[in-house]
Amino acid sequence: MRLRPEQLAKHLTQSLLPVYLVAGDEPLQQGELLDTLRQAAREQGFDERQRFSSDTGIDWNALLNESQSMSLFGGRRILELVLGEKRPDKAGSQILRDMLASPSPDTLLLIRCSRLDRRKDWNSAWVKAVDEVGAVMEVWPVEGPALRSWLQERLTSRGLHANDDAMALLIERSEGNLLAAAQEV
Question: How far, in whole angstroms, is CA 25 from its chain's centroid?
Fold first, then answer.
């Protein structure tokens, strides 16, 4: 299922899906969505976490084995897969599809990657498998009038208010960098 970032809070009032793919080129938004998912998972008893990253090379068989093995303490766990710009090779794609064909209720798979290409990525078998049993969330850069709204929402959520001059200064100084804007707030 496709899920917009602003729909996540409402979605998390229900039970978690077996997999979430958070894609995009906006690291602050990606990080906050993943933090929200991790927090919801912790509240539902997912107390272990294992990370697989393309930076260090992903051992796809180790991911598969981890998804199929019992937790050391019998608890529920989160498997995080950080792809960045890379995408699963043929073997990785097959392993992800196998994992998602019969997902374990005790394992939550969180996948983080860069922006999905409409022609290439959305037609790949692994993204289709995620879309079938889980949720795909895409984050986009916040620019123009949307940046002003994003900043206003951020300020309000922290009990702050800024006049038009202060907002203009925040927008100018952050130059569209959401992390810098969030730090200023």
Answer: 11
Q: Residue 129 in contact with residue 96, Cβ under 8 Å?
A: yes
The span from the CA of 121 to the CA of 106, in Å, is 28
- Cβ neighbors of 75 (< 8 A, separation 6 or more) are 45, 46, 47, 48, 106
Q: List CB contacts of 66: < 8 A, sequence separation 6 or more.
A: 50, 79
Q: Is the pLDDT score of 71 beyond 60? A: no
What is the tens place of the pLDDT at every residue in 100-159? Answer: 998 888 899 999 999 988 888 888 999 999 999 999 999 987 777 777 888 888 788 888
Number of Cβ atoms within 10 Å of the Cβ of 146:
11
Q: What is the dihedral of CA 32, 37, 39, 42, to 10 degrees?
A: -160
DSSP class of residue 5 equals G
**Paired strand residues for 135:** 20
Strand positions, DSSP E, the chain: 19-24, 46-53, 76-84, 107-113, 135-139
Cα(1)–Cα(153) distance, integer angstroms: 26
Burial 169-182 (b: 16+ CB within 10 A, else e): ebbeebeeebeebe
